[in-house]
Amino acid sequence: MFKKRILLFALALAGAGAAWQLTRGTANEAPIKPPPYEPATRDKDGLIAAAGLIEAVAENTQLGSPTSGTVAKVHVKVWDKVKAGAPLITLDERDLQAQFQVQKAAVSAAEAASERADDAARRWTGIKDSGAVSAADLLSYQVAAKEAKAKLALAKAQLDQTSVMLDRLVLRSPIDATVLQVGVRVGEFVAAGAKAPVILGDISRLQIRCDVDEQLATRMRDGLPAKGYLKGESSLAGGADRSIALKFVHIEPFVIPKASLTGASVERVDTRVLQVIYQFERPAGRAMFVGQQMDVYIDASQNASGK
Amino acid sequence: MYRLALNMLFGDRAKLAMLLCGLAFSALLMAQQSSVFFGIMSWTYTPMVNIRAQVWVSDPMVEQVNDAKPLRDTDLGRVRSVDGVAWAAPLHTSFVQARMQDGNFKLITLVGIDADTFAGAPAVLTQGRIEDLRLPDTVIVDEWGAQLMGRTEIGRDGKPKTTPLKVGDTFEVNDIQARIVGICKVRRAFTGGPFVYTTYDRAKAYTLGARRTLSFMLVEPQKGITPAELCGRIERETGLKAWTSDTVIWSWGERSLARNTFWWFWTNTGIPFSFGTAVLLGLFVGIAISGQTFYSFILENLKYFAAIKAMGAGMGVIARMLFVQAFTAGLIGFGLGAGMAQAIGRAMIEKGMPPFVMFPQILWATFALVLGISFVSAVIGIIKVSRVDAASVFRG
Amino acid sequence: MSHQAHTVAVRATGVDMFFGTPENQVVALKQADFEARRGELIMLVGPSGCGKTTLLSVIAGTLTPQAGTVEVFGQRLDGLGQEELTSFRRKNLGFVFQSFNLIPTLSVVENVMVPLLIQGRPYDEAHARAHAIIEKVGLKGREEGRPNALSGGQQQRVAIARALVHEPPLLICDEPTSALDKDTGAHIMELVRDLSRSPERCVVVVTHDHRIFRFADRIAEMEDGRISRVVDDPKLLDTSHL
User: Fold this and answer.
1) What is the pLDDT of residue B39?
2) Cβ within 8 Å, pair B313-C93
């Protein structure tokens, strides 16, 4: 009987113990593990965080076409390095070419007419015998020669005009740069002043446009050092310092509305941001492209007011 | 006398069995019912369990984790600018309709995590790799969701058979394709359907009408700074609300989002009432059963206690004897009941349904209640014995 | 012992006892006088409802009378509180009940130990003394059994052992043989007489079983709540109404 009693006690104790052990198990949640890829970790105080977008130094030139027309020829492709004045795109010039030929013929005709009038005037002027030609006739010949000359000048000017217009159909690079984007194909129509068919930039040196929330703007000063962490680079070998040292360029004078990119047709203003420009040397061996995002930490700990 | 009291208790095996059954059954009812109740209630803060981070930051008006009030994208920069923050990652959560290939619609919990670091990613992937989320139009669904959103067909035997979704299957969210690249194992939620993970930027696309998509920010404090400390700093400097992610609901910690969610559901919904009545019924049944059996046990022994009293035992001795009997029975009954409850609980946890969370407090409360029942029964017995006329023993 | 005062064990004088409300009163004892001496076995006899058990309860200190004095071994019981009465019973009384009142969930020896344990004796000592007295009542070998496994006579032997284990000066027996057949009853009374006989001890037996009258030293007959007469020889009693 006594043994049974102990058994009962033991059973009760075991039950309570197992229940207690279960309470330890169910109430506690999984431990917090670090993310699969190590995030850019702040290591000091007094930093201002900003979202940065890589762009080319001196900003990207979004080239527009001065005239409307159909694209006849695309001279460049992306990554091409172009000199200032190099042709990029030629619009359809057939009608102007035709006009050019007509005007060229007109110049020839005007030349011929001018020569003939000139010749007649000279001839009649050389005859000293005043009786052979009346003074009035002589004047008439001379005026005709002048008129022919003026017509020639007009025809030439018209030809020149067409030539300039022809030249305008060729879109040329205003600077030494790299072609970053070509937005048109042969046969497409380009409207004057519409979307940029070609984007040029100097990508030998990149710069970063950082959006600083307006509420943090008061902490921003000229000349603050900064570090950038490229998005998508967290998969680099862990532990390696993947930060990129940034050099201050300037603060944009205007606080601008930040667009909220929802993918919808209308982009809406979300908040206002102060834009700060930083420059950096492209690190060796690391691919970096214009338009990539970067997490930027601006070091405002000294709060050294710039200059 | 105490030894005799115990011998009296253990002497009658049938009566003891009934008594212990009553006590154990009521302990079982109380512990098991309330564990299931708290299991269901703990589903309310499932996002906190599935998405693990030290600190959560939200809009100041947010009261609970299922009700996100979107933030501005630049708020991420403001939080990152707070001293003591090691890193901060964006998180999107929303309830959206997913369109299955068979045309059915299912409500899902869309979770957008930072594609760069995958902070907030599910801890356990049973299929696929988290990195595949970087491919276009990809999502990771949880096991329950894979089952729920699976294709149901009538088999040859006439019974409906559900083929769960697998890697490579697709569905649509807001007319945008979602291709499954992984299956994860996460806890079920009370609201919002299965968890579907995607990247933060893609979540923006999936919820195209939404003006703002930043629901929460997951923040890690720097070494040497406690989450609570960091919460204070973030709130001071940004005006946003910062929460700790601990799931200890039995505290007065105002910072715990899980705790606030739990008690928000407690006070603002009918769930505690509807589920709680079942628990209370179980409680009452348990109290009634064990009280009843205990009382009848004492009644049956009343005659003998009267004899002992006539023989010159004081009420103090008799009271102590009754307490010894009551508490011994109570302790054993509790142990047996708790043992049964945990066995059932383990089976439930194995199955995953219904949810079973046995908080230590549940066990303590059951313990206190069973001992309370024992105590009250003993007190009633003592009153009975004290009222009994010692002379009554002479009358047959 | 030579003094009169010392030979008197129990003296009840002018005891009034009634139950119920004043409008609906049942009178149990009315100016009852009773005296028992040390070293004797006295029986209280009478018809049912004559007040035997009430008088016994008064003597045993389990009932407090409305009037009269009760003195047991020189100690006045009237006027004592519950605690003192309990303590008095614990020290001075042994009980044998009509229905034995053995605790069925305890073994024989444990039942016998109860009075000693109530007195606060250590378990081992109580156990040894219980064993000894169980042997005396002739139940050796049955100590660890349950009372329910015993016959009625054996159970009453256990009850006697329990009543005497702490050697009380006053033994109270309430109808000890009424649940037993004739021979068994006679054996029990022999046992009571043999074991309880001591110059210091007084045994009060309430019974209406005339077959056992022969064991009495004196017999007090009760009628309508009072002692009608006390005789030395049972033959002098009119037993026709019993």
Assistant:
1) 85
2) no
Task: Compute the count of residue pairs across chains B and C with CB atoms less than 8 Å apart.
Answer: 87
Chain B from 166 to 195: CB within 8 A of any A CB: none
Contact with chain B for residue A294, Cβ under 8 A: no
From B49, B45, B121, B73, select the one nearest B217 (Cα to Cα): B73
Q: Which of C93, C102, C103 to mutate to test the interface with B (most CBs of B within 10 A)?
A: C103
Q: Which chains touch B (3 or more CB pairs under 8 A)?
A: A, C
Going by their DSSP bridges, the two strands C93-96 and C170-174 should be labelled as parallel
**Nearest residue to C63 via CA among C53, C72, C49, C73:** C53
Bridge partners (DSSP) of residue C171 are: C94, C203
Count of other CB atoms within 10 angstroms of residue A138 = 16
Two tokens at A72? Answer: 């006849």
Q: How is domain C40-61+81-236 classified at the architecture level of CATH?
A: 3-Layer(aba) Sandwich (3.40)
Asked if B4 lies within 8 A of C107 by C-beta distance, the reply is no
Over the Cα atoms of chain C, what is R_g? 18
Taking residues C119-147, report their average pLDDT: 89
Mean pLDDT rounded to a whole number for chain C: 85
> In Å, how far is B295's CA from the nearest CA of chain C?
17
Residues of chain B in contact with residue C54, where contact means CB-CB under 8 angstroms, are 391
Nearest CA in chain B to C126: B1
Strand partners, A71: A91
Which residues neighbour A11 within 8 Å (Cβ) at sequence distance 6 or greater? B335, B336, B339
Euclidean distance between CA atoms B79 and B87, whole angstroms: 9
- Report helix, strand and coil shares of chain A as percent, to nearest 5: 30, 30, 35
C166 to chain B, any CB pair closer than 8 A? The answer is: no
| pTM > 0.80: yes or no | no
- Token pair in block for residue B148: 């729920």
Domain spans in chain C, listed from the N-terminal domain onward: 40-61+81-236
Q: How confident is the model at residue A196 (pLDDT cuts 50, 70, 90)?
A: low
Suggest the residue from B72, B87, B261 to mutate for an interface test with chain A (most A CBs closer than 10 A): B87
Q: What is the identity of the amino acid at C53?
A: T
Interchain CB contact of C128 with B (< 8 Å): no
3-class DSSP assignment, residue A161: helix
Asked if B81 contacts B94 with a C-beta cutoff of 8 angstroms, the reply is no
In this structure, what is the dihedral angle of CA atoms B330, B335, B337, B342, given to the nearest 10 degrees?
Answer: 160
Q: Which of A73-87, A231-245, C191-205 has the lowest mean pLDDT?
A: A231-245
Sheet containing A189-190, strands listed edge to edge, beginning at the edge strand earlier in sequence: A170-172, A87-91, A69-74, A189-190
pLDDT band for position C129 (cuts 50, 70, 90)? very high
Q: Which residue of B has its CA nearest to C95?
A: B311
Contacts of C53 in chain B (CB under 8 A): 394-395
Contact C110 B4 (CB under 8 A): yes
Q: To the nearest whole number, what is the mean pLDDT of chain A?
A: 81
Question: How far apart (Å, rounded) are the C-alpha atoms in residues B67 and B23?
Answer: 42
**Structure tokens belonging to residue B100:** 């299955």
Query: B125, B152, B156: which is closest to B141 by C-alpha?
Result: B125
pLDDT tens readout for residues B292-348: 887 788 788 888 888 888 888 888 888 998 899 889 999 999 999 999 999 999 888
Q: Give tens-digit pLDDT for A166-191.
A: 888 888 888 888 888 888 888 888 88
Please report the ipTM that was assigned to this predicted complex: 0.84
Check C57 against B7: CB less than 8 A apart. no
Find the residue in B nearest to C163 (Cα).
B311
pLDDT attached to residue A265? 47
pLDDT over 70 (residue C108): yes
Determine contact, residues B79/B240, Cβ cutoff 8 Å: yes
Burial class of residue A271 in the structure, from the number of CB atoms within 10 Å of its CB (0-12 exposed, 13-18 middle, 19+ buried):
middle
Identify the residue among C86, C91, C148 best suited for mutation to test binding to B, counting B beta carbons within 10 A and taking the highest.
C86
